[in-house]
């Protein structure tokens, strides 16, 4: 059985994509572009894994970026060393079938030494409580407007025993740091827009981090993605609450 791949994303060790595809249709979606490049590979491996009968139309489904469970990826093994594993890189779990979530969470429970990282733009659906999320899952919400951050804080109130993180990526407008409740957030990640670094303004990032409300002094960690390097022109702050070998 093959092992999952190391990730190029700087805030995790590994990527694991048992589900690919999403129905939200964000205009800046990099996952859709990635899938276009690798849909052939995924489809071929899935056919090899579970046979032609059970995979009719799979290439079209994957290439169209429709949510698809991939048995051959699900079956992969994890390293023995405690690691951080991002398992929603090419999807949004908001659109998963409940049986997919149950299978994935069952496997995650059997590997308590790892931190599994989950990120969604649909917190109300993904974290509705209908399916219990294992405690070794870090629950993340992408929020890029003040209103989305308010909603994220409400959701995080129901996940006090999990690691909770907010991803403000891409930061494409000024964000009010006063909305961050450090009692509810273990980590805030800030990033720029892929391929368009100037869409993020240095002032917005610095105000968010160094403004009057010093939320990070209460223990919340803060991570600036590498794609902010050019805009900020200073050493990036890169703190994480989970194990990582490359930070
Ligand atoms: S929610 Fe994520 S995966 Fe879905 S379209 Fe938007 S950026 Fe892509």
CATH class category of the largest domain: Alpha Beta
What do we call the CATH topology of the largest domain?
A: TIM Barrel
- Oligomeric category: single chain
Structural class: alpha/beta
List each distinct ligand once.
iron/sulfur cluster
Overall number of structural domains? 2
What's the alpha carbon Rg, rounded to whole Å?
A: 18 Å
Poorly predicted residue ranges:
none
CATH architecture of the largest domain: Alpha-Beta Barrel
**Strand arrangement across the biggest beta sheet:** 1-2-5-6-7-8-9-10
Indicate the mean pLDDT: 95
Characterize the biggest β-sheet.
8 strands, mixed
In percent, how much strand structure appears in the residues? 5-15%
Helical element count? 8
Summarize the helices and strands and which ones pair or pack.
Layout: E1 5-6, E2 14-15, E3 19-20, H1 30-50, H2 58-63, E4 68-69, H3 71-74, E5 84-86, H4 98-109, E6 115-120, H5 123-126, E7 137-142, H6 146-156, E8 164-168, E9 187-190, H7 202-210, E10 221-224, H8 229-232
Parallel strand pairs: 2-5, 5-6, 6-7, 7-8, 8-9, 9-10
Antiparallel strand pairs: 1-2, 3-4
Descriptive account of the structure:
This protein folds into two domains: 1-13 and 79-247, Alpha-Beta Barrel (TIM Barrel), CATH 3.20.20; 17-75, no CATH class. 29% of the residues lie in helices and 15% in strands. It has helices at residues 30-50, 58-63, 71-74, 98-109, 123-126, 146-156, 202-210, 229-232, and strands at 5-6, 14-15, 19-20, 68-69, 84-86, 115-120, 137-142, 164-168, 187-190, 221-224. The strands form two sheets. Strands 1-2-5-6-7-8-9-10 form an eight-stranded mixed sheet. It starts with a strand and ends in a 15-residue tail after the last helix. The model has no long low-confidence stretch (mean pLDDT 95). Iron/sulfur cluster is lined by residues 22, 24-26, 29, 31-32, 91-92, 121.
């Amino acid at each position: 059985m093959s092992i999952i791949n190391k990730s190029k994303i700087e805030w995790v060790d590994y990527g694991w994509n048992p589900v690919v595809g999403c129905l939200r249709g964000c205009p800046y979606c990099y996952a859709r572009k990635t899938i276009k490049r690798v849909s052939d590979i995924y489809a071929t491996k899935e056919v090899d894994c579970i046979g032609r009968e059970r995979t009719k139309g799979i290439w079209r489904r994957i290439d169209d970026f429709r949510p698809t469970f991939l048995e051959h990826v699900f079956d992969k093994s994890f390293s023995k060393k405690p690691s951080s594993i991002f398992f929603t890189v090419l999807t949004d779990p908001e659109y998963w079938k409940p049986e997919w979530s149950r299978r994935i969470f069952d496997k995650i429970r059997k590997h308590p030494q790892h931190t599994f990282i989950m990120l969604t733009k649909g917190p109300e659906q993904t974290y509705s409580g209908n399916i219990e999320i294992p405690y070794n899952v870090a629950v993340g919400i992408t929020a890029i407007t003040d209103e989305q951050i308010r909603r994220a804080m409400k959701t995080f109130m129901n996940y006090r025993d999990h690691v909770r993180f907010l991803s403000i990526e891409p930061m494409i407008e000024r964000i009010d740091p006063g909305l961050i409740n450090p009692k509810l957030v273990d980590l805030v990640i800030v990033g720029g827009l892929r391929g368009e670094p100037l869409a993020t303004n240095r002032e917005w990032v610095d105000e968010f981090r160094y403004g009057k409300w010093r939320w990070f002094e209460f223990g919340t960690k803060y991570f600036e993605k590498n794609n902010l390097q050019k805009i900020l022109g200073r050493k990036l702050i890169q703190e994480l609450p989970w194990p990582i070998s490359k930070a």
